[in-house]
Write a structure and sequence with these properties.
The complex is a heterodimer of chains A (376) and B (388). With 376 residues, chain A is an alpha/beta fold. Chain A is built from 8 helices and 17 strands. Chain A folds into 3 domains: 180 residues, HUPs (Rossmann fold, 3-Layer(aba) Sandwich); 58 residues, Adenine nucleotide alpha hydrolases-like domains (SH3 type barrels, Roll); 80 residues, Elongation Factor Tu (Ef-tu), domain 3 (Beta Barrel). In chain A, helix 3 packs antiparallel against helix 4 and helix 3 crosses helix 7. Chain A is globular and about 70 Å long. Chain B is globular, with a radius of gyration of 21 Å.
């Protein structure tokens, strides 16, 4: 048994609630404040939308106004921390670089780990807070080796996938007050409390992109050529060669970064059976296409392997999700050293997409995960 | 001692005499000062009495005082007037420590082809009069130099610059918003052509300010509409706020000598104890002429933003410089103009005292400050704060 065995979360000291201005974090703040524990609200100014007046973007200025207003309604102090430089360096630049490297990135995972926990927890501690609370749908439960990350009770809302890179140390300093609640219940609480965000919709998938993702990538590279030095070698508008797996040329398409592995629509190729993107090769400016069965992969290679608990001694049997809405597949995980991993699926899977996260579950518990490099 | 408010350069609590003067106009009395009937006459009377009280505090004549809704409006109005009817663009001369209501207006004019010269302060936070004089040109249409800087509290050499302007026939705008009510301000001694004043910086209400325009100097209305304020500012007067403004001015007039001494005593008590309580702490511009109520301090290795939030959690309200609408903290442009680095600017804190503060509050604030600075240095060591 470790020393970390409380039955009730320890709420002594100051708790900082990360407030995005959305429904969930607002209700999290309201619930904590109502318990009478000392709470402050923190919002992060992450991205300057320069005039884009859209709600539902967790990093936008309008939503920060909502966060401030909710803090006022809840009766807690609220502070906005400017973290746009960190957000650009930790989330936006890697996002653009991933596309330029032929990967399909998962910026929300990066943001959750690096911004909402690494950075915000560190800033909150500087402000004298002992922990950070968020509106995530996930649970932190005590385990034999310290705190464990588990799925939310409301499986439809579960966000544990996005949190797989958290450490035990971070989980010990985190609170997810909504982890055992259902969304309709959360909205009802907001209505009863009269919070101004009670009728607000879900936030968008990628908060800093207001138009198309590919247009965003092109605008970033064009606007900041120095930042994407590697992209200097990429002819941004050059159409990619579309080939089959054997290298036979099938036609010309859009620039390579406009494709995603598994994509079917918009290939513009005539064929007897439907064609799918199998691989993207930026160096060759080539997009490999093939038939549905070619997409089936027996496993994947991963990098930056992370275990929340102590690393296991041998291969691990777990259910692996290869994207946030993936139902999960039984798999065996082999750690290969230096953060690398090979994952063998019990059943071949479609849509093994480089740049996405593969997250490991045993029952409701999140063991950890890795980032997909390629299929096996 | 739950809350201590030490951010009086942002705004001040209302003087009891101002509150008393306002209450009838928020209750049983009402009227539009432009109406002919006796309701209007009573409201007109209240506004004109306030005008006399404000004029008296400035050593001016009532007819020279134009009421506005904010110091920002008054400053904007002068720049709009001077540059509006000018035909082709000319030259504007500003100090680099002006309030944003002047700085941003100048930026807008620069986009329209105006040439703008900004004269930086020295390391003591004072803009040298010589440098201002040397930057005057034959096509200079307006000079702007504030009397007391809102962040540092330093007093600027307005009379010297005014003399040079007068000799060349160039109008001078002096933003005296932070000075009035804290130190004696006499428009004739200043020698400016336009002086702006705001009520809420000296225990008057928000939403009331004034532009003093020297007799014989023109000002065209910035807001057009009705003929209020002798056709110099349209819009129905905010009678309650102006009544409070007048009463705050009268109170300042009565208390001024006491205020200057009282505020300086609070500030000196704070600054004398500070180095022992927060090792390494410095007071910016301590040797320069400055307001009696403002202490701008540097805490090397301490992130001002984090310290401000920690102090607020403990009930002590201070500022890191000028407030910003998004609620985030930016390095002070004034400190950068003084030659400080970004990190130095971000480790500064502004403590500004007011007439409602007590000596015990200063002592309590020092206790909390000492504790929070030590704690912050423990959790976020110098190297880390500097690296950010």
């Amino acid at each position: 048994m470790s020393a970390w065995t409380p039955t009730e979360p320890d709420l002594s000291g100051l708790t900082a609630v990360a407030m995005s201005g959305g429904l969930d974090s607002s209700v999290a703040a309201w619930l904590l404040a109502r318990q009478g524990v000392p709470v402050i609200g923190l919002s992060m100014l992450l991205w300057d939308h320069s005039g884009v007046e859209a709600h539902g973007r967790c990093c936008g200025a309008l939503d920060l106004g909502d966060a401030r207003r909710v803090a006022g309604q809840v009766g807690i102090a609220h502070y906005t921390l400017r973290m746009d430089e960190e957000f650009r360096a930790k989330v936006v630049d890697p996002f653009v670089e991933d596309y330029l490297a032929g990967r399909t990135p998962s910026p929300c995972v990066r943001c959750n780990t690096w911004v909402k926990f690494d950075l915000l927890l560190e800033r909150a501690r500087r402000l004298g807070a002992s922990r950070v609370a968020t509106g995530h749908y996930a649970r932190i439960l005590p385990g034999a080796d310290g705190p464990e990350l588990h799925t939310a009770l409301d499986t439809a809302k579960d966000q544990s996938y996005y949190l797989f890179e958290l450490t035990r140390e971070q989980l010990a300093a985190s609170l997810f007050p909504l982890g055992a609640m259902e969304k309709p219940q959360v909205r009802e609480i907001a209505r009863t409390a009269g919070l101004v965000v009670a009728e607000k919709g879900e936030s968008m998938e990628i908060c800093f992109v207001s138009g198309g993702v590919r247009e965003f990538v092109e605008a970033q590279v064009a606007g900041h050529p120095e930042r994407y030095a590697a992209a200097g070698r990429v002819a941004l508008a050059a159409p990619a060669r579309l080939t089959d797996a054997a290298g036979n040329r099938l036609g010309e398409g859009e620039p390579f970064y406009r494709y995603t592995v598994g994509q079917r629509r918009g290939l513009g190729l005539a064929a007897k059976s439907p064609l799918f993107v199998l691989a993207i090769e930026p160096g060759e400016n080539r997009v490999v296409v093939g038939e549905a069965q070619d997409l089936l992969a027996p496993g994947l290679h991963g990098e930056r392997l992370h275990w929340i608990g102590p690393p296991p001694a041998g291969p691990v049997e777990a259910t692996v999700k290869i994207r946030s809405r993936h139902p999960g597949v039984a798999a065996r995980i082999h750690a290969l050293g230096a953060g690398r991993a090979r994952i063998d699926f019990a059943e071949p899977q479609r849509g093994v997409t480089p740049g996405q996260a593969a997250v490991f579950y045993q029952g409701t518990r999140v063991l950890g995960g890795c980032w997909i490099q390629d299929r096996t | 001692m739950a809350f201590v408010y030490l951010d009086n350069n942002a705004t001040t609590p209302l003087h009891p005499r101002a509150r008393e003067a306002m209450l009838p106009w928020l209750g049983e009395r009402h009227g539009n000062p432009s109406s002919i009937h006796r309701f209007g006459q009573a409201a007109r009377n209240a506004v004109e009495e306030a005008r006399e009280q404000v004029a008296l505090l400035l050593g001016a004549r009532a007819a020279e005082v134009v009421f506005t809704a904010s110091g920002t409006e008054a400053n904007n109005a002068v720049l709009a007037h001077v540059t509006g009817g000018a035909g082709r663009p000319g030259h504007l001369l500003l100090s680099a420590v002006e309030h944003p209501s002047i700085r941003e207006m100048a930026l807008r004019l620069a986009r329209l082809g105006w040439e703008v010269t900004r004269v930086s302060p020295g390391a003591d936070g004072v803009v040298p009069a010589d440098a201002m004089r040397a930057a005057l040109r034959t096509d200079t249409r307006l000079v702007a130099l504030m009397l007391a800087n809102n962040e540092l509290g330093t007093l600027q050499p307005v009379p010297e610059v005014a003399q040079a302007c007068r000799a060349r026939g160039i109008p001078l705008l002096c933003d005296a918003v932070q000075a009035v009510g804290k130190i004696p301000v006499d428009v004739d001694e200043l020698g400016a052509d336009y002086v702006t004043v705001g009520a809420h910086k000296f225990h008057g209400p928000l939403g009331a300010a004034a532009l003093w325009v020297r007799a014989g100097v023109e000002i065209s209305p910035y807001l057009v509409g009705g003929g209020q304020e002798r056709r110099r500012r349209a819009g129905t007067e905010n009678v309650a706020a102006l009544a409070g403004f007048g009463a705050a001015a009268a109170a300042a007039m009565d208390e001024l000598a006491h205020r200057t001494a009282y505020l300086a005593a609070l500030r000196d008590r704070f600054e004398a104890a500070l180095p022992q309580r927060a090792p390494g702490a410095l007071v910016h511009c301590a040797g320069a002429p400055r307001l009696p109520n403002t202490s701008h301090i540097a805490l090397p290795g301490v992130e001002g933003e984090s310290l401000l939030i920690r102090l607020d959690v403990e009930g002590i309200a201070v500022s890191t410089g000028s407030a910003c609408s998004s609620g985030t903290v930016e390095p002070s442009k004034t400190l950068l103009a003084m030659g400080l680095s970004r990190d130095e600017a971000l480790s500064s804190l502004r403590v500004s005292f007011g007439m409602m503060n007590r000596a015990e509050e200063v002592d309590h604030a020092l206790d909390v400050l000492a504790r929070e600075v030590a704690e912050l240095r423990r959790v976020a060591p110098v190297a880390e704060a500097a690296a950010r």
